[in-house]
């Protein structure tokens, strides 16, 4: 059993056991999966607040970034878990998280249409947040418009090459 598998199974008791044994180097809470996610990053992606709290309590690296340039706040924003976002921001500043991610958390929240998170992030930095951009140059307004449902015919896929 690993910290990553405990997060997958949402097994807090086993995770606590692993975190307690960790100093003996028998288990590694900073082990990464094939995407570069640590157990903390995976718990944020899956919106598992108690797993994340447990890992943070035992010293998980809040500065970890996966192979896609996503950090804990970005992934918690993807999951839309406000309580998890608040837990992370209690331990590291919003602006600091944004500096270490290819896509700012507010942009992820906008893409996933998590309006509560977009509003919350905007209150944290009302001047800077509207100016944040993804690595592709898209801001929260463009991302919100880009993902609105389109009026396309259902069940008709058009292949312009055939």
Automatic annotation (TrEMBL):
GO CC terms of this entry: serine/threonine protein kinase complex
Q: Where are the ANK repeats?
A: 35-67
UniProt keyword list: ANK repeat, Repeat
Q: InterPro entries from the entry?
A: Ankyrin-KH/SAM_domain, Ankyrin_rpt, Ankyrin_rpt-contain_sf
Q: One of this protein's GO BP terms?
A: egg activation
Query: Per the record's keyword annotation, is S-adenosyl-L-methionine included, yes or no?
Result: no
Coiled-coil region(s): none
Would you tell me the protein name for this molecule? Answer: Uncharacterized protein
Q: What is the lineage of its organism?
A: Eukaryota, Metazoa, Ecdysozoa, Arthropoda, Hexapoda
């Amino acid at each position: 059993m690993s910290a990553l598998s405990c997060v997958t199974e949402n097994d807090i008791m086993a995770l606590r056991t692993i975190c307690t044994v960790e100093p003996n180097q028998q288990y590694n809470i900073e082990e990464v999966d094939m995407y570069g996610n640590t157990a903390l990053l995976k718990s944020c992606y899956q919106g598992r607040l108690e797993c994340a709290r447990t890992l943070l309590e035992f010293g998980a690296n809040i500065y970890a970034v996966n192979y896609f340039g996503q950090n804990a706040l970005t992934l918690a924003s993807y999951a839309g878990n406000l309580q998890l976002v608040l837990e992370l921001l209690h331990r590291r500043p919003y602006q600091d998280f944004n500096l270490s991610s290819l896509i700012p958390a507010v942009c992820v929240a906008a893409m996933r249409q998590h309006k509560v998170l977009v509003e919350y992030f905007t209150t944290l930095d009302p001047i800077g947040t509207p100016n944040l951009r993804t690595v592709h140059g898209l801001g929260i307004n463009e991302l919100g418009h880009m993902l609105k449902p389109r009026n396309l015919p259902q069940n008709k896929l058009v292949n312009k090459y055939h």
